[in-house]
Design brief:
With 232 residues, the protein is an alpha+beta fold. It has a domain at 135-231. The protein is 16% helix and 24% strand. The protein is built from one helix and seven strands. The protein has a four-stranded antiparallel beta sheet with strand order 1-2-3-6, with no helix packed on it. A three-stranded antiparallel beta sheet has the order 5-4-7, with no helix packed on it. The radius of gyration is 76 Å and the shape is rod-shaped.
């Protein structure tokens, strides 16, 4: 076996002195060197970054293709109401509307003042004497001057009493009027009304007035000397 001595002799470099600094001093030196390196790096970064920025911004790149349209944005909030516009011109007249419904009837007015008295009517027809013959012709004034009149009696016991008075041949102009009949006794000018029928309507060519329409049904025919008539 060969034995080799591993212990090497120290080598001293020419001009280099042995470092006798303490560990604290070496640590301080190391920190100082690191600080200097960091400052240099920061300076270089600041200068280099500004230079690179100026170079990049000075370059003009070619325009790229247009990108696709973006999605529609959401609706914005409603804007404030606008001010009122000016009035428009007056339109032409429209067509006439339909007629309105008739109004309800008004209340009756108050009665007017009484009018003046009318003119006196024409005199009534003269009476006709019927006792002897029982019939004759009478004048009814303005509507007929030739009306036939006939008196009939009824027999009760031994006496004749007034039964009916019939007017016939009456003109149509007299229809709608009324007549009053009077059975008179006595002599002129002292006539006595024995019985009367007031307000008999003329509705046709003839009118029959029976005893029931007279005020007294028990008038003897022999006492009647004249029949008087008045039309109204």
């Amino acid at each position: 076996m060969v034995s080799v001595n591993a212990t090497a002799a120290g080598y001293s470099y020419p001009g280099r002195t042995a470092d006798t600094a303490t560990p604290l001093e070496r640590s301080r030196r190391l920190n100082t060197a690191l600080l200097v390196i960091i400052v240099i790096l920061l300076l270089f970064g600041a200068l280099g970054g500004t230079y690179l920025y100026s170079v990049v911004t000075g370059l003009s790149a070619a325009a790229g293709a247009n990108g696709a349209d973006g999605l529609p944005g959401s609706n914005g909030a409603p804007g404030p109401s606008g001010s009122d516009g000016s009035s428009g011109p007056i339109g032409s007249s429209g067509a006439d509307g339909d007629d309105g419904r008739n109004g309800s009837d008004g209340q009756d007015g108050v009665d007017g003042a009484a009018g003046a008295d009318g003119l006196d009517g024409q005199p009534g027809a003269d009476g006709v004497t019927l006792y002897n013959s029982g019939q004759g012709v009478v004048d009814l004034g303005v509507c007929d001057s030739d009306v036939r009149i006939k008196l009939q009696s009824r027999l009760e016991g031994d006496s004749f009493y007034l039964s009916t008075i019939t007017l016939s041949g009456i003109s149509s102009e007299c229809r709608g009027a009324t007549i009053d009949l009077f059975a008179l006794g006595g002599t002129s000018p002292n006539w006595v009304t024995l019985s009367e029928a007031i307000g008999v309507d003329i509705t046709g060519e003839s009118v029959v007035v029976d005893s029931g329409q007279f005020s007294d049904e028990s008038v003897l025919s022999s006492t009647i000397t004249k029949i008087a008539l008045e039309i109204r």
